[in-house]
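Reading a protein record of the kind used here takes little practice once its layout is understood. An example of such a record is reproduced below.
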Amino acid sequence: MVNGQFSERRETNILVLTSTFPRWQDDTEPGFVYQLCQRLSDSHNIKVLAPHCMGAKRKELMGNVEIIRFRYFLEKYQTLAYAGGILAKIKEDRLRMLLVPLFILSQLIHLLVLLRKERFDAIHAHWLIPQGFVAILAMLLARKSIPVICISHGGDLYALQGSIIRLCKLWVLSRCAAVCVVSHSMADYLRQLGIPEDKIHVAPMGVDLTTVFVPDENAIRNKNTIMFIGRLVEKKGVKYLLQAFRENLKNNRSLKLVIIGDGPEKTPLMELAKLLEIDDHTTFVGAVSSENLPYHYRTASIMVFPFIKTEAGDQEGLGLVLIEALGCHCAVIASDMPAVKDVIIDGGTGFLAKPGNVSELTAKIEYLLSHPDLAERIGCKGREFVMTRFDWNIVSERYKTITNKIINQVTSYNC
């Protein structure tokens, strides 16, 4: 170490714990954890511990990232993670609660084995529960002092408000070296919980706005196409979009609604579309790989993201789909949620509507569809806005700075 800083030749090893990660190449699972890992790998050695599922390899190398997937039950019954996330999967089938102890125990055992065999300079734990909890518990059991950086994406902080789980989250937050949240509203929530200011970092996930989610001058927008992209879970509020679309159809029978994504709410939403008699104008595409998403953003008239806060308290932590859409010059209408305001400035980079308010959502959709020039201007302004804040080149540097600072603090203390 030189002047409290790592020499250029020192190799730092980062272990990443996550429950959301691509299961294989070209997977439709959200890839933001992998994208962050890949960008950190140019300055750190990255190893990922993620849950296994049927069809996935136990060990593999993706880019420069080494992945280990832990089994927690018989392979065909490993259904707790992926395809909507843990909370959504439990809501879909309460019996999956029985898998939670097995999931946590297996992740803990695999982590303890890794800690015994290898040296790590820091741990990135994506989501407070269960990954943050497992990481802190492993430090105590292994008697290690590796700094744990918890990265909260929204649902883990806002939902899970039972007294015992709430205490677990506070315990994790009190013992981690730093906590990164993806929006300023989440940082405010942490302050309300009494988390020290110097431990809180606003560090959203990023979007490739340089090579992937970019405008295409040759793309032609379908002037009557309204689109939603995202996981089909309750907090996305898609049922309110279906209800608003029924009202929009009364004024324009040429409209089409395209729903892209998968999740436990897909079947109920398809049934609702039939009940509302809009199924002839509504297409449920299913999940689409990230490589194919730009095409859809470039051809939609407008993107609508009707997020809500669920009864359990779960809500959007940021909404990377907003950024992806704006990166492709597509106009956006979204719910007026605290985290959304980090991306959408009403009337500037998009339009906001009250969560769950069908009449206001209907009016905003109709207004933007009838003013295509305004939609185009908003899409352009939106891209300028997100380029300076959410491109992966900016985001990855932020995470490198946070990680290196925490590692240096621990190293300086040990010296």
Q: What stands out?
A: The chain has 14 helices and 14 strands. The longest helix spans residues 392-414.
